[in-house]
Amino acid sequence: MPPPQQEARSNLLELTPHRHSYSLSPSLLLLLLLVPLLLLLVYILPSSSRFLRPKFSIALFSRKKRSFPSRHSGRASGQMAEEGVVTVYNSNVVADTKKNPFSLKVGMAQMLRGGAIFEATSVEQAKIAEEAGACSVVVSHPSGAATGISRMPDPSLIKDVKRAVSIPIVARARVGHFVEAQILEAVGVDYIDESEAIAIADEDNYINKHNFRSPFVCGCRSLGEALRRVREGAAMIRIQGDLDRSGDVVETVKNVRSVMGEMRVLNNMDDDEVFAFAKKIEAPYDLVAQSKQMGRLPVVHFAAGGIVTPADAALMMQLGCDGVFVGSEVFDCSDPYKRVQGIVRGVRHYTDPHVLVETCSGLAGLHLGQERIEESEGQ
C-alpha cells in the first residue's frame, strides 16, 4: 500500500501531457510562413506604387466626341481624358503647378474640341448662338467703334451675357496688356483670348499666361509661332487668317495648310533632325519633340478668319483643325439662327457631303460691309 503522497504524485504525472504529444505538420508550417509574407506584399506594394506616377502630365486627344459643358460646370470639372497620358514638363521649366495648373487649362480647352465659337456683340446674338448649338461665345464690342481702336469688351456687357447664356464665355484682351487680362479674369470669363484682332498694347512682349488661372487662346500663322505661344502658357491656338471681316478664307486656308504641312515634315524627320528643325522655326525644342511624338500640336487649334458658311467651316475641319471661330458678321442676315445652326452642323458633320448639302441650302444672303457677297448658297 503506497503512502498518500506517493499516490498523489503518480496521479499528477498521469494528468500531465507528454512533451512530444503535439507536432506541426509540414503543410501547416508552410502556411504559417506564407501568411505574413502575403500581408507584407498587400500593404507595401500599393504604397510604393505612387512613386511611379508622373508628376505633371496632360491628356492626349482621343477621337471620342464630347458634349460641350455649360459655363458653370466646365470651370468646376476640369476633366481630361485619361487615355494616353504623356509627360510634358517634368522639370522646373514651368512654374509651380499649384499656381499654374497647365494640364488643367489644356483639359478645359479640349472640352471645346469639335465645336464652333461665335463672336457676339450683344446679348441677343449670344442667345442665338447658344440656341443654335455653339460651344462658346466671344464677347466683343461692335466693330464700328468711334475711336478706331478696339479694346477689351465692357465688363458690364460680359456680365449681361453671362447671366443670359450658360455656355462658356471668351473675352478678348489686347496683346501684351496683362492688366486687361486681370480684369477679364476678375469678371469671371472662362477663357481669355490674347487677340491681335483688336489691337496690340505691347509690340515686344506677350502676356505671361502662367500667372493666370483662366486658359488663354492665342493666334498664330505658323508652327513656330504656335509653339512659342504654348511655351508662354496658351492652352488653345487660333490659326488666324483674314482680320478684315471680308468673308475671304484664302488667308486662313494658307495659314492652316502651312501649319499642317510643317507638322507633316516634322513627323517624317529622324530624331537627329528635330533639333535643327526647332532652331529653324525658332520654337522650344521640347515642344517640337513632343509635337512629333503626338503627331499634332500639343493643344487644340481652331481656325479663324473669313469663315461665314457651313462649307467654310467643313473645309477647315477637313484640313485638320479642331474647330472654328466665326465672326459676328454671320448675324448680319435675314435669318441668323439658320446660318449659325448650319455652321455648327457643318463642323459636326464635316465628312458627310449629304448633310453639308442640307446645311448650305436655302441660306439667306449675307451682308459684309456695304456689299452683298452671297445671294444664295443654295444656288
Automatic annotation (TrEMBL):
Signal peptide: none annotated. The chain crosses the membrane at residues 24-45. Pfam families: SOR_SNZ (PF01680). Residues 102-304 form the PdxS/SNZ N-terminal domain. Coiled coil: none annotated. The keyword Ribonucleoprotein does not apply. It comes from the Eukaryota. InterPro entries: Aldolase_TIM (IPR013785), PdxS/SNZ (IPR001852), PdxS/SNZ_N (IPR033755), RibuloseP-bd_barrel (IPR011060). Keywords: Membrane, Pyridoxal phosphate, Transmembrane, Transmembrane helix. Belongs to the PdxS/SNZ family. PANTHER family: PYRIDOXAL 5'-PHOSPHATE SYNTHASE SUBUNIT SNZ1-RELATED, PYRIDOXAL 5'-PHOSPHATE SYNTHASE-LIKE SUBUNIT PDX1.2. This is PdxS/SNZ N-terminal domain-containing protein. It comes from Eucalyptus globulus (Tasmanian blue gum).
